[in-house]
Design brief:
11 helices, homohexamer, alpha/beta, four-stranded antiparallel beta sheet
């Protein structure tokens, strides 16, 4: 997260604070003395890859510029359970208001990073790279994709605006895959690569004939994938997509594709187990 | 979703469109003729509880007021795989831009509703109700909680502002649970109920002595829960929380608590399998 | 005002600055040298309860981070006329642009706090507490309610979202008050108390039968209030509402109700008399 | 209110809805059936000048485009108590959510218009016009000033950006009033008139010598005002300001000034008594 | 402009309206009767390529949904002076408020489209395409680039996010152009092409050795460009950039480059001459 | 640029950053090491009047609070080519992301200031002042007008809200110019001057008869202008408008008008030639 990226996220972080804190944290207001101070630690309860520490720091700053935040780990670190990731010190009220807001970010992002790292580990030694998709939680695209990078994954396009991926729902408007690719090529700028999704050998051949830059093998079995890799023989990079799980990801990677994209990385996240431990200071 | 609720969500829906469509959908712009029209159907690939149809309708309207949207199912419906949930007709470009944006909402919300319904089914016949938490994806609180209702669950407080829940991190600032509850009572308005989280019998007794309105049993085993229910003997409602899974939820319900809250409903969502099938029109 | 509350108000404060300063303060730009500096004091012209000093400080910071702000009194202080509340030092242009913007907040909030304190003083020695309503200036709800607290009053619910109050306009959809209360109870979460507004003894009895948690006596005379208090005999808290003035508030309080809500606290505010005295520095 | 003015106010109206409705109207949600419909009337409980009907119409449209709104009176109308101003028909839930939000606008604006009309009536037959100030509720400047026009008053400048008014706090940076006026004249565009506030005869003479276009007599008594009018002898328009009440406003007007500005019109508003009567439909 | 693109521009269009109309159009308010209606025509005073008609339509709708807008020409049309481009009918006040706001868009965009078409015409018959840059007016990037397309030009990347262009200011951090290209390649996703800016033959050879996908010849003379084209011999596409004018653009095109980028298209715009003719209706 | 003016511009500056940086600067991310630092200088390539340094400083701060910015020249300075205007030091990534965003502001504003200064120089020794118009780039009104001031020009009204200018499109709704002026006068506040646009002697005489405060001579030749000046004989200030160029501006000024307004200052801007030179630090 570069500073300018955090600037661009500020509105989103403020929205998250507003969503939870709304008209005020009535529990903290009614149970804490106005001048109570605390020290609090973000502590892991499982092994994980850290992602979101910089976001938590920014959230703390937005909630209360008087809070002192100290990161002990950085995004991308692999840590074991019971690790202190960061400490925050200052107004007890501010820290308790911040608790769930910050954990919701930290647990989701670390969950994504950790899952990504598992997929990456499974394909070690192959040439395949683990890639994400646009199946992210609405509003969290940039953060979800940042977490994938923290886990060692590679980002596919961010949105509809920064990459061309012709899918079946576009192909139905064209007589052939090749026609779709050629039509797009004429209308696109000179920095665009064209990826096209295919579902069988005929379309695959057609995509290459049309001049596709990257080809996505949609819902191929590992066997079909192997045959496709052989037939393409390195002419264009290949990406496996659809139905990839931790169990079968290595089969796809060993089939020889260049990329394996995994929607579950972001559409079916398991939040990492991280707590905030607070004590009076 | 009442109309005014959709009004309040509009900014969030626009942000989701902006996030994905950004400076323009370059694939649709380069592969589709400007005046191409299409008809498209949202189709399930699994059994599920529907949630998010109204959101998809609103997204379609925001993307292009010329799109005709027709809902065939409503939020809360239980449907089987291969069911047509809704149809949209109009500009092919608009429909393809809308595809992933709308599916990301629909898959997440239906995933939450479906998981909730499974928990609810497990406790059938007991007096316990399934309750959500604030462990939601940042920015999606209201929608995540709406999906829980679609699945038959009950909402806990929406945020820090509309309910009092004194947790361990507040209790460390007080000599006793009873002191925390009494302090809060004095400072709160007359419409507030006070829930307090306890971890053992001493705290439980103390909470009742202090006048808590609801007590949350934090990380109790089913056995401990049963003993707690007996000891409280109906004086205040009880809520089980922490470590609840599909496997053990019935045990907690049968232990006699009034509420069982399940963080996984929203912090570890599995997106439901729903596709958009497009054809030229 | 906690730091996070100020964060959530920032957009509103900026809107107030934008509203007045718009495309620029042409008077200051044309009459002051660019490098002129000033020192200015917020001075009371009447006895009052201070409210809004923290807001003025935040406004000063937003207008010009170079301004030095020094608070001499804090929100909630009772002061006499001719008291210096705060001092600001720095660019003369910035201070003069800030003048009316900040006074509009400070005068309104101190006006509300002062009026609230008068009502509170009138009921001294009784068990009744002075409560506000949602009859606030649009956009100023949180600040108006903060000012009520500064004056010693208690806040009723902040908005439609954090408290249940069944009024006559809801009751017309139900065969009885009891039915309305019971219907609501079934659909509500476990942290909600239900208050219901009644206008006669029949409804009052019905409300208690239905299980209302708090009852609002709408437009009762003091005599009717006394009879209601007797009949309820402490079973639920009672709130007087409608037609309350400084002249009759004690009568209601002495009738034995727990709360007296006063719409005029915020819907008919008299701005407190406070000036800004500026001199070159 | 021109359509484009309403466009510019939309964000403010949405903010007011968000402020009250927040995460949802829990009372309406729990007491009304989802498909309940209602008809509701805005009814006066006192004589008043109407202001805000167009705003209520816009709020209704923002809350729920399905609501039918029918205005029976227009802004600026003088009506007696028990007059039906407007009717709205549609979803009961939407109408009840809208109730307080819309009344808060309508009561404040009609309160301002009504008070303005009283001041205007007091100066009937004189040449003086009643003028407002910038002492408005933060965020409501344009609406407060619109209400003044509905009541027959005239608007002073809207903000710091559209009129020059040199006040005492500017004058302290200049050796003389004339110097301040001349300095400003040199730096200002050709469409600016310069008004300057004076507190005695010396400053008044100096202001005229400096070429002021309008002179504000600050906190003059009626007698002092009369003498000032005589001494100025029509060379520039004069405005009385400070300490004006319903009781003394005619004295100032009869003293011969052109304008009398009244801060209380907007800084100390008494909300007009208007109710919403709802019945099932 | 697709509907969803207009949705994403709405905030910007509203900001433009707010910027000009601010607290109200005092001239129209004071000179026009409230119910005056008008018909107005957007008429060209010169030959031009139209761009912005859809934007004017959207502005009209935002200002006043009661306005009837009828486009007689569409974006991209080449028209002569004295052509009626569009007509708007409705409230005179709304039309006059809209006048300058809409003309500022229409004149700028048509100015850009017209200038682009002139460059495109100059390179007719060559293989070179005219390309824009990121040197646009802040806030108008998408519209400026849309106007370039209306004029027959091709868009370079929209922003820093959707294309890789390694410029001299990046190269200074690398020992060689090849190193920069290779470093980027490793870190980029599979849909990115890499363009690199070179200033001499050495860098050009190095860029090709490093595997650049596109090469920008920065501030080459036409002669140097010819030599570069020969040396590259079609291995990668080439883009001329820097110092291109209407006078020399054909020389560059004939030198054999694939693209010629022209910053002046958007950084030094001459507004097209278009008027609004209004008459009472 | 006063601090409060920068506060009011912040949203616009953030929008400009968001527009270019979007989902991230992929070139800098892929070519620069995360901890690379740089020093960079804004250097002129032509003689110019500086405008925008304060804006660049604010942009730098918004992009990355860790950047050190040092201005060597201030807005309004006349400098020659090859002058270092400002230096920025810090994260190489931040500086390169900032490059084009900041140059787009600096080049436009300095371009406007420089052009304005040329017009001002041409009328040296006459009584005429160079004035701008509302023909600015949408969204940049305040900055464009600030640049005009930096170049020695005078601002006409900022928008429709802070000055009255009755143009031909208003006059068509009135039987005479005098009628339009008189109607406006009755409805306007006491700080408004009325300017009216005339196209011939008849309208000019009528405008004076109606009491116009300023008269704009629309599309007069220099000869016609001279005759108009003689006929008016100093009764009201005159402004020439329409068809003014660097070549003929002195003729208009010498004809004796008080103001000459030049739309081209802002509607047809030539960006000044300024570069950012970056080196590793």
């Amino acid at each position: 997260m570069k500073p300018v990226d955090l600037t661009l996220l500020r509105e989103h972080l403020l929205a998250a604070i507003r969503e939870d804190a709304g008209s005020g944290d009535v529990t903290s207001r009614s149970t804490l003395d106005a001048d109570a101070t605390a020290v609090a630690g973000y502590v892991t309860k499982q092994d994980l890859i850290v992602s979101g520490i910089r976001i938590v720091e920014e959230l703390a700053r937005l909630c209360d510029t008087g809070l002192e935040f100290r990161a002990l780990r950085i995004d991308g670190d692999a840590v074991t359970g019971n690790t202190l990731l960061a400490e925050v010190r200052g107004s007890a009220h501010s820290i308790l208001t911040l608790e769930r807001i910050s954990l919701n970010f930290l647990q989701r992002l670390s969950g994504i990073a950790t899952a990504t790292a598992e997929y990456v580990a499974r394909v070690t030694g192959t040439a395949a790279r683990i890639v994400d998709t646009r199946k992210t939680a609405p509003g969290l695209r940039l953060l979800d994709k940042y977490a994938v990078r923290c886990g060692g994954g590679m980002n596919h396009r961010v949105g509809l605006f920064d990459g061309v991926l012709i899918k079946n729902n576009h192909l139905v408007f064209h007589p052939s895959v090749a026609d779709a690719v050629r039509t797009a090529r004429q209308r696109l700028g000179h920095l665009a690569r064209i990826e096209v999704e295919v579902t069988n050998q005929l379309e695959l051949d057609d995509a290459i004939a049309g001049g596709a830059d990257v080809i996505m093998l949609d819902n191929y079995t590992p066997d079909e994938t192997r045959r496709a890799v052989l037939s393409v023989a390195g002419r264009v990079p290949l990406e496996s997509s659809g139905g990839i799980t931790l169990e079968n990801v290595r089969e796809y990677a060993e089939a020889g594709v260049d990329y394996v994209s995994v929607g579950a990385l972001t559409h079916s996240v398991t939040g990492a187990d991280i707590h905030l431990q607070v004590r009076p200071d």
